[in-house]
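User: I'm writing a tutorial on reading structure tokens. Could you give me a worked example: one chain, its sequence, then its tokens, then a sentence or two explaining what the tokens reveal?
Assistant: Sure. Here is the example chain.
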Amino acid sequence: QRHSHGSPHCRQPLLNHPPRGGGSSIPQSSNRLDPLNFVGRAMKENAADGSSSRHRTPNVPALVYTLNSSTKWVVAIAHTIAVWSRPRNFIAPYIVVGSIGAVYFTDAIKQVINQSRPSGAPIADPGMPSSHSLVTFFAAAAWITAAACNGRLGLDCVSLLLLGSASTVAILRVVCGYHSVAQVVVGAGLGSILGKCWVWLGETVLFASNPHLAYWISWSAYLSGSVFFIGTNIRHWVAKDAHH
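And here are its predicted structure tokens:
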């Protein structure tokens, strides 16, 4: 079937072109930096999480894919509990807002770097850096920094738990074939730096300047961001899990 040059169908074979190696780039779309496409790409990556057998790498147990698929729910539930267990707290919703922003920030970086995923990955979009690795390490570093700023006891145990959880997510992405080691390492490093900087900005600039205003900004952004996230990602997760 022949198509005109303006038809999106003409570009589809290019987007599905096989990767040429871990460090190669994939063909670019003219609207790859369009913010309106970020949600769609994030939902596409979460859809191919290995819950279907056609997405699975040989010799990897099904339990590993189940764990990989469940990490998004664990992170979302943990953040929700952390926020609503202390509703008068400023930093908890502030960290969640930063984590949501990190999802779309990572997608923008991926489109600029444009490095392909490992050969055989079920997703054809760019993989550098890993979104899962960056966002989980962002959250881990942010919570650790917030605890240190407030002089909380048991910081060592909290740090080990958070870093261990983030490392598990990153390892699962490599084992399941979604990312190379370099892609999750870059994501972890960048996420850790951004998480620390995000909390520093909130504690020393926003909260220190006007605690009352900081509280309302944090909660307003959290509630509106949550509504948006539930209406897009969460609803898609539920529909996908019910399908599989």
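What the tokens reveal: The radius of gyration is 19 Å. The helical segments are 12-15, 38-47, 62-84, 91-113, 131-149, 155-175, 181-209, 211-243.
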